[in-house]
Amino acid sequence: MDRKQRMIGEIEEEVRSTVGYTGRARLRTGVLEAMTAVPREEFVPPNLREQAYENVPLPIGQGQTISQPFIVALMTDLLEPEPGHRILEVGTGCGYQAAVLAELVQEVYSVEAIPGLGEAARERLKRLGYGNVSVRVADGNRGWPEAAPFDGIVVTAGAREVPVALVEQLAPGGRLVLPLEGPDAGQDIQVVTKDSEGARTSQPILPVAFVPLIHPGVPG
Ligand code: SAH
């Protein structure tokens, strides 16, 4: 079995072992196909290429990480992506989650706060032929107003509260998937949905530990 197939097997196993939390015993076939299609070794630092297909997060510089493959797959599945969708990602990092989404939907908009990471991800995604991903260096708490509304929004850093702009930029029926800090300081991946009347509901899915969402320009 090659290492990519082994990674998919490990994702499927972790999906089964977390079903008590997520209610999902399996992920959409399309999500696993997208995870198979993206060359993860292109997104990790050269010295970590050997570990690219292990089901673990890895450092990508600037104190940031590329998320664990299982978490990328789960968050992608929670977005319920459709081929015609336009998706916003907050926290481009190395661009891996954006590439997985780009395999599944029409357009991906991704915002990264750290210029060095955002620019490198933009170059990488272009080089790998992901022409349907746009990367912007900015504060993702503000979303990407000019490109809104989005069918789905995924935040890949832990938020203390749901950023208001992101709810505003979500299309009716759209899904916002984010790690959110709870009252006890632990984090859960949550799915926030907005119905056609604009009413919000949120559902906790799984306890996680993401690096915090930063608030550039805000002291403290
Ligand atoms: N999705 C990434 C994971 C990145 S880790 C991947 O597939 O590799 C989280 C990222 O969120 C980091 O790159 C961090 O710099 C970025 N980030 C944190 N706060 C942010 C903010 N307010 N706006 C945009 N990006 C932010």
UniProtKB/TrEMBL annotation:
EC class name: transferase
Taxon lineage: Bacteria, Pseudomonadati, Pseudomonadota, Gammaproteobacteria, Thiohalorhabdales
Main location: cytoplasm
Keywords: Cytoplasm, Methyltransferase, S-adenosyl-L-methionine, Transferase
MF (Gene Ontology): protein-L-isoaspartate (D-aspartate) O-methyltransferase activity
Compartment annotation: Cytoplasm
InterPro entries documented for this protein: PCMT, SAM-dependent_MTases_sf
Species annotation: Thiohalorhabdus methylotrophus
Function: Catalyzes the methyl esterification of L-isoaspartyl residues in peptides and proteins that result from spontaneous decomposition of normal L-aspartyl and L-asparaginyl residues. It plays a role in the repair and/or degradation of damaged proteins.
Family: Belongs to the methyltransferase superfamily. L-isoaspartyl/D-aspartyl protein methyltransferase family.
Documented EC number(s): 2.1.1.77
PANTHER family: PROTEIN-L-ISOASPARTATE O-METHYLTRANSFERASE, PROTEIN-L-ISOASPARTATE(D-ASPARTATE) O-METHYLTRANSFERASE
Active site, UniProt feature: S67
GO terms for biological process, alphabetical: methylation
UniProt keyword DNA repair, yes or no: no
Catalytic activity: [protein]-L-isoaspartate + S-adenosyl-L-methionine = [protein]-L-isoaspartate alpha-methyl ester + S-adenosyl-L-homocysteine
Gene name of this polypeptide: pcm
Name this protein carries in UniProt: Protein-L-isoaspartate O-methyltransferase
HAMAP family linked to this entry: PIMT
